[in-house]
Design goal:
Order of helices and strands: HHHHHH
Helix content: over 70%
Structural class: mainly alpha
Largest sheet: none
Mean pLDDT: 85
Length: about 160
Protein backbone atom coordinates (compact mmCIF):
# COMPACT_ATOMS: atom_id res chain seq x y z
CA UNK A 1 0.00 0.00 0.00
CA UNK A 2 2.81 2.41 0.89
CA UNK A 3 4.55 1.67 -2.41
CA UNK A 4 1.40 2.66 -4.32
CA UNK A 5 1.14 5.95 -2.42
CA UNK A 6 4.83 6.69 -3.00
CA UNK A 7 4.51 5.82 -6.70
CA UNK A 8 1.43 8.07 -7.02
CA UNK A 9 3.26 10.95 -5.32
CA UNK A 10 6.27 10.49 -7.63
CA UNK A 11 4.00 10.40 -10.63
CA UNK A 12 2.19 13.56 -9.50
CA UNK A 13 5.51 15.37 -9.09
CA UNK A 14 6.59 14.18 -12.54
CA UNK A 15 3.33 15.36 -14.16
CA UNK A 16 3.57 18.75 -12.44
CA UNK A 17 7.19 19.11 -13.58
CA UNK A 18 6.49 18.45 -17.27
CA UNK A 19 3.07 20.11 -17.52
CA UNK A 20 3.13 23.62 -18.93
CA UNK A 21 1.92 26.21 -16.49
CA UNK A 22 -0.64 28.70 -17.65
CA UNK A 23 -2.25 31.69 -16.09
CA UNK A 24 -6.03 31.54 -15.88
CA UNK A 25 -6.27 35.26 -16.63
CA UNK A 26 -4.01 34.94 -19.66
CA UNK A 27 -6.04 31.97 -20.93
CA UNK A 28 -9.29 33.89 -20.49
CA UNK A 29 -7.96 36.92 -22.34
CA UNK A 30 -6.66 34.79 -25.22
CA UNK A 31 -9.98 32.91 -25.44
CA UNK A 32 -11.90 36.20 -25.40
CA UNK A 33 -9.74 37.62 -28.19
CA UNK A 34 -9.91 34.48 -30.35
CA UNK A 35 -13.67 34.16 -29.91
CA UNK A 36 -14.15 37.88 -30.43
CA UNK A 37 -12.17 37.87 -33.68
CA UNK A 38 -14.24 34.96 -34.94
CA UNK A 39 -17.46 36.78 -34.07
CA UNK A 40 -16.25 40.00 -35.69
CA UNK A 41 -15.40 38.10 -38.87
CA UNK A 42 -18.87 36.54 -38.79
CA UNK A 43 -20.49 39.95 -38.39
CA UNK A 44 -18.44 41.40 -41.25
CA UNK A 45 -19.48 38.52 -43.50
CA UNK A 46 -23.12 38.85 -42.42
CA UNK A 47 -23.16 42.60 -43.00
CA UNK A 48 -21.52 42.12 -46.40
CA UNK A 49 -24.21 39.65 -47.43
CA UNK A 50 -26.79 42.09 -46.07
CA UNK A 51 -25.64 44.65 -48.64
CA UNK A 52 -26.75 42.40 -51.49
CA UNK A 53 -30.22 43.44 -52.69
CA UNK A 54 -32.94 40.86 -52.01
CA UNK A 55 -31.14 39.14 -49.14
CA UNK A 56 -32.90 39.44 -45.81
CA UNK A 57 -31.05 39.79 -42.53
CA UNK A 58 -31.99 36.21 -41.62
CA UNK A 59 -30.62 34.89 -44.91
CA UNK A 60 -27.42 36.90 -44.45
CA UNK A 61 -26.97 35.31 -41.00
CA UNK A 62 -27.38 31.83 -42.48
CA UNK A 63 -24.88 32.58 -45.25
CA UNK A 64 -22.41 33.96 -42.69
CA UNK A 65 -22.73 30.74 -40.68
CA UNK A 66 -22.01 28.69 -43.79
CA UNK A 67 -18.95 30.82 -44.56
CA UNK A 68 -17.64 30.38 -40.99
CA UNK A 69 -18.10 26.60 -41.24
CA UNK A 70 -16.27 26.47 -44.59
CA UNK A 71 -13.42 28.61 -43.24
CA UNK A 72 -13.13 26.37 -40.14
CA UNK A 73 -13.02 23.24 -42.31
CA UNK A 74 -10.41 24.77 -44.64
CA UNK A 75 -8.30 25.89 -41.69
CA UNK A 76 -8.56 22.41 -40.18
CA UNK A 77 -7.43 20.80 -43.43
CA UNK A 78 -4.51 23.22 -43.76
CA UNK A 79 -3.46 22.75 -40.12
CA UNK A 80 -4.12 26.39 -39.26
CA UNK A 81 -6.99 25.67 -36.87
CA UNK A 82 -4.71 23.71 -34.54
CA UNK A 83 -2.46 26.75 -34.16
CA UNK A 84 -5.45 28.97 -33.51
CA UNK A 85 -6.67 26.45 -30.91
CA UNK A 86 -3.30 26.35 -29.18
CA UNK A 87 -3.22 30.13 -28.87
CA UNK A 88 -6.93 30.93 -28.45
CA UNK A 89 -7.90 27.96 -26.31
CA UNK A 90 -11.62 27.74 -25.62
CA UNK A 91 -12.27 30.87 -27.69
CA UNK A 92 -11.44 28.94 -30.85
CA UNK A 93 -14.17 26.42 -30.09
CA UNK A 94 -17.16 28.65 -30.57
CA UNK A 95 -20.11 26.41 -31.26
CA UNK A 96 -20.24 26.63 -35.04
CA UNK A 97 -16.51 26.76 -35.85
CA UNK A 98 -15.54 24.30 -33.13
CA UNK A 99 -18.19 21.87 -34.31
CA UNK A 100 -16.97 22.16 -37.91
CA UNK A 101 -13.40 21.61 -36.74
CA UNK A 102 -14.36 18.54 -34.70
CA UNK A 103 -16.24 17.00 -37.62
CA UNK A 104 -13.60 17.66 -40.24
CA UNK A 105 -10.64 16.63 -38.08
CA UNK A 106 -12.34 13.33 -37.23
CA UNK A 107 -13.10 12.77 -40.91
CA UNK A 108 -9.50 13.54 -41.88
CA UNK A 109 -7.98 11.38 -39.17
CA UNK A 110 -9.79 8.23 -40.28
CA UNK A 111 -9.86 8.75 -44.06
CA UNK A 112 -7.35 5.91 -44.53
CA UNK A 113 -10.05 3.49 -43.36
CA UNK A 114 -12.21 4.36 -46.35
CA UNK A 115 -14.96 6.78 -47.26
CA UNK A 116 -17.78 4.99 -45.42
CA UNK A 117 -16.18 3.09 -42.53
CA UNK A 118 -13.53 5.76 -41.93
CA UNK A 119 -14.54 9.27 -42.88
CA UNK A 120 -18.33 9.08 -42.58
CA UNK A 121 -18.51 6.86 -39.51
CA UNK A 122 -15.93 8.77 -37.48
CA UNK A 123 -17.35 12.13 -38.52
CA UNK A 124 -20.78 11.10 -37.28
CA UNK A 125 -19.31 9.70 -34.05
CA UNK A 126 -18.71 13.35 -33.17
CA UNK A 127 -21.94 14.70 -34.66
CA UNK A 128 -24.30 11.99 -33.42
CA UNK A 129 -24.24 12.75 -29.69
CA UNK A 130 -24.57 16.47 -30.34
CA UNK A 131 -27.60 16.00 -32.57
CA UNK A 132 -29.23 13.50 -30.22
CA UNK A 133 -28.73 15.76 -27.20
CA UNK A 134 -29.99 18.75 -29.14
CA UNK A 135 -33.16 16.95 -30.18
CA UNK A 136 -33.82 15.39 -26.75
CA UNK A 137 -33.28 18.58 -24.73
CA UNK A 138 -35.21 20.69 -27.24
CA UNK A 139 -38.13 18.30 -26.87
CA UNK A 140 -37.86 18.43 -23.06
CA UNK A 141 -37.79 22.24 -23.16
CA UNK A 142 -40.81 22.30 -25.48
CA UNK A 143 -42.79 19.95 -23.25
CA UNK A 144 -41.93 22.00 -20.15
CA UNK A 145 -42.94 25.21 -21.93
CA UNK A 146 -46.23 23.61 -22.97
CA UNK A 147 -46.92 22.42 -19.41
CA UNK A 148 -46.11 25.84 -17.99
CA UNK A 149 -48.39 27.48 -20.56
CA UNK A 150 -51.19 25.06 -19.63
CA UNK A 151 -50.77 25.74 -15.93
CA UNK A 152 -50.64 29.51 -16.36
CA UNK A 153 -53.73 29.45 -18.57
CA UNK A 154 -52.08 30.87 -21.69
CA UNK A 155 -53.33 28.00 -23.83
Amino acid sequence: MTDNIKRNENYSRYVNAISPSSSALSSLIKAFIAGGITCVIGEIVRNTFGLIPGITDEQAAVYASVVLVVIAILFTGLGIYDSIGRIGGAGSFLPITGFANAMSSAAMEFRSEGLIMGTAVKMFNVVGPVIVNGIVWSAVAGILRYIIALISGVL
